[in-house]
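Researcher: I need the complex structure. Ligand is PBG. Inputs:
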Amino acid sequence: MLHEKNEFNLDMPHRPRRRRRTPAMRGLVRETRLTAQQLIYPLFVHEGPDEPIDAMPGCMRWSMDGLCAEVGRAAALGICAVVLFPKVDNKYKSTTGDEAYNPQGLIPKAITRLKSEYPDVLVITDVALDPYSSDGHDGIVDQTGEILNDQTVQVLCKQALMQAQAGADIVAPSDMMDGRVAAIRQTLDANGYTNVSIMSYSAKYASAFYGPFRGALNSAPKASGSNGKKNPGDKLTYQMDPANAREAITEALLDEAEGADIIMVKPAGAYLDIIYRLTGVTTLPIAAYQVSGEYLMIKAASEGGWIDEKKIVLESLLAITRAGADMILTYYAPQAALWLNEA
Ligand code: PBG
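Model: Output:
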């Protein structure tokens, strides 16, 4: 491509703009690509009929039938994995969260149904007590308000085993108790579930970005707990301090050593540096969770007509991928897949 010699031409061998001239050229040099295959779709299930979630416009609490239909729609768009969260009726909640391992509970029913209708879609389950805890904590709270580590891990093992028995492909502990990955791995293996994977929420921060999710599940930690206990109204004694980055490496390496198959950083958008740091210290696949608050900020701004929803969503997901995430949990999964397909 010959250019007229011009007296204003700078003497410059490097012109990065040469690589941005046309769509074909930009396509050749593109470093990161986003595909539907790397998206994981979080879904809420409950006992009632399908109902919209006020705090998360565009998201639903699904009935069992509604859940199935939605997974079918997502699969048709190329989504290969879903993660399930239950909204549990208060009458099933307790201080010890025993409903978490009830084999007749909502989650095992949903797993069985989904695996029979869509055997190729990976079903991922959340391992933590908060949806089942009358205290709204991921673990068991004692009389002094402490969240008990080792006792909680025992219950988490029962929960993970029950989920594996129901057919879960991947169990995903999101509770942040110490040692839970090793304990869950041991429990699964001892019971013959060597093929069930563990996706560990390794670097899960105590984040205000989870607000809408807690509204969706009615699972916010309660400052005055059951039995008149004085509970912490936050999760700061188990989830990570947003100020810490090196600590995320400690958590990730522990989970790797304990047998995690995939590690996770959560939230995603405000923690891209954490994702990037972990790429340097582990060879395990890295997941990132674009959480409810991140979803809501984009959704609300686009409903207000202030931003271009499609462009912002695809850019946010691309940025998370560029930072080093191999897969992304996002409430936008089917919508993003649709947009990617038409691109
Ligand atoms: C709880 C759990 C939370 C989320 C996923 N699992 C909330 C919390 O830790 O309080 C948040 C997801 C989101 O905000 O989208 N085990």
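Model: Summary of the prediction. The pocket of PBG is lined by residues 126, 128, 130, 138, 174, 210, 213-214, 235, 291-292 (CB under 6 Å).
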